[in-house]
Amino acid sequence: MITDLLALFVLIVFIGYGFKRPYIALCGVVWIDLYKPQSTSYSFLAGKPLSLIFTIFFLALLIFNHKSVKPPKIFAYHFFMLFFIFWITMTTVYSEFPTIAWLKHDIAYKTLLIAYFIPFVLVDRRSIEAFIWISIVSFGTYAFFAGVKTLFGGGGYGLDLVGQGFMWSEGSTLANQVISMLPVFWFAAKFSLLGVSNYKYYLVNIGFSICAILTLIGTQARSGIVCLLVYIILLIKQSKKKFSALAVACIIPLIIIPLAPESFFDRMNSFSSEEAVSEDTSALGRLVVWRWTLDYVAERPFMGGGFYAYKANAGKLSKYSKDSEVAITTPHPKAFHSIFFEVLGGHGYVGLIIFLLIIGHSYLLNYSTHSKAILNEIVWKQELAKALNMSLLIYCAGGLFVGIAFYPWLYYIYGLSIALNVVEE
Amino acid sequence: MDIEGGGKLLAAFLILVVVVFYSKKDDDKS
Fold this sequence. Notes:
By secondary structure, chain A is an all-alpha fold.
């Protein structure tokens, strides 16, 4: 009841301040979509269509405040996003498992549609930073739940550390997401208007960063370790002060080693040698499913099999193991466990090309924004463009091993990249 | 208060701060 009253209070704040400011209303939609208060509630908000209500509210505000809405004049952005929405709809129409595919489509197209409007309303530094902060608070809340539980010994492989029951409850997904937020936490702490206004907001972001690393320990997700390694490499590579960056990087193991239980190191050791990998059905299952996916899309190169196409591999995976590997004999289907194979298997080579173009375009936009901001000496733009690109690379590196292609952050980065590129401040 | 209750309270406080802070910046600009 009390947490529902808190959520209601937050919703009233978004509505009250959002009436004249569409970007605040968008922040409200994003908070509901990421945090899902109606799904974690056991009281009067439980099951209420909050996302639908707030999305309608936001779209209505777009019309009423059309003078403050600025559609970006970048044709590629409109084409990639709208074509991708169209394409996943077409692949769902012709999907192999239409009943469940439409359920996933319902979530995916709404995610893409909301992300599409990001640069329409984030038209200045204030609105961009507000959006960044609301994303930080939404993901940071999960990092806080999981991190503090881990600190008190509540972590473990396969456990639901956020108590949500779906979406971020899966350990690898949660670890990938919160580790990819580390550069954004740092930007908000050091360079955002709110972060520099008061030292406690700097400390909040440092706290979220520590919680993100604790989340990685608690979930024992190996893909999260990949994300963290990529972050450390990028941190050292992009830093002007290599020695300082190396010193910061050395702090991370100092947090992990004393807090991680023995089971964490046992799990990390499972990919220490080729022999260990060949006997690890979790890691090997991914390789086998990827081989199967290439065969599967060879028969459906354009459209793939729609959402949940991996269900077609039930009972077929044993023949995709090599002689030296443990055979995957389960009669149940195995998921793609990779954003790239997820899009390839579900939406064919056409879907994969558009997906890669979205990622590539985001990267190039941020690269260009960063270069221009250096010339114009706009520090916040330099740092945000850099943080977004680091976050993108970390997300994709972890995404090589986790099926999070239609989770929102990737598309939020794209929308933010466009907004940051066109903003004049 | 449990961990999740504390996290939700922190989130609500931060959202209020973010919305008020950046809305005020908007008002100052106009």
